[in-house]
Amino acid sequence: MKRIRYTKFTGDLASVLGLEDLMQSLSEFLLDSGFKDPYADLSQRKQTLDELRDAIEEALESGDLFDEESQQKFDELSDEEAEEIVEQLLQKLQEQNFINAEQSSEPGTSETGEAASASFDVTDKSMDFLGYKALRELLGPLGKAAQGRHDTRHEASGVEINGSSKLYEFGDTLNLDITATLSSVFAREGLASAIKGEERAPLQIEYSDLYVHQSDYHSSCATVVLLDCSHSMILYGEDRFTPAKRVAMALSHLIRTQFPGDTLNLVLFHDTAEEIPLSQLPRVRVGPHYTNTREGLRLAQRILARQSKEMKQIVMITDGKPSALTLPNGRIYKNAYGLDPLVLTETLEEVSRCKRSGITINTFMLASEPSLMQFVQQVSAMCRGKAYFTSPQTLGSYLLMDFLSRRMKTVH
After folding, report:
1. Residue 374 lies in domain
2. CA distances from 85 to 99, 122, 211 (A)
3. Is the terminal CB of the chain with fewer CB neighbours within 10 Å at N or C?
4. Orientation angle between helical segments 124-139 and 241-258, nearest 10 degrees
């Protein structure tokens, strides 16, 4: 008979560490927007496995992932042993579908003479996880997130009553208010006419007597996040694009889990504008250089025109003035100096079109220049939206608080 010997499991450092904690620690690296090398052309470049190894090693050395005893053990490891731990964690990330590794398609060496390294892609599972973590972090200071749908000033028939009644109309939920209905019958026929001696006559209830309870009316909302990815978002000593991506991911997770009737689309604007799937957002880096706000608004309007929602809004995250314009012949007119009168006029005309279409524009400005503040305030006034002058550190709290408060999302 085969004997099985049991021993105490002591584990190793790779098994002690949870992959969720590691992914959270790697989030800045995985969502990198090019801040560390702002002048390099990173739009088509993928992150390599060697860079991921370095990021994992840096996270392990930070002291934020292990407890005190495990961290001491890691610090005492030789370089070869530490590299083995990194390789084990890298393998686990692939096995549990957090990353997809790709072998280099170019054999040989790179331009620097080094062996070409394989690249990797972050999976949708990782993106969903990072969006959830970002949402938890951003909602932490705000308290528990509101459940359900967007409240409005309107009322409608439903199951959850709010104390008031209305005459029944075709299509209403038949949640009868018995008291109001009988009161209507008695007011029409009189109480005495409904009683004959000791026998009660059948009540003649007519269509006009029917009253139903009212409940708060909830509507769905179509949202387009208009995200500035011009070069200024990573210049001037501050990474503004990575926090903006994190907030957009959190908003996507919030809408998918708490507001399932809503829609969310993402538009990037730079020299021109383009719609991308939300799943591709974490992989986006900045570029090209200019800010074509008008083209972004035009694309957002086309997207919202396809949505049959009662509330439509544009959430614009930007840090700069409009500096580009698509001319009728397709040429891109650019002016990076000041608020160009032509660019400004055409951009505000597009804002007017949003207003006429019933689209609210809420602007989150990551800059505080007086001329920009005046422009953003003008945009908000035209569309009955809000203007927030914030920073990358407070952007998420402002945006999610605004979304959850729903004060500006009331249907009129």
Report:
1. 132-149+220-409
2. 17, 21, 70
3. N
4. 90
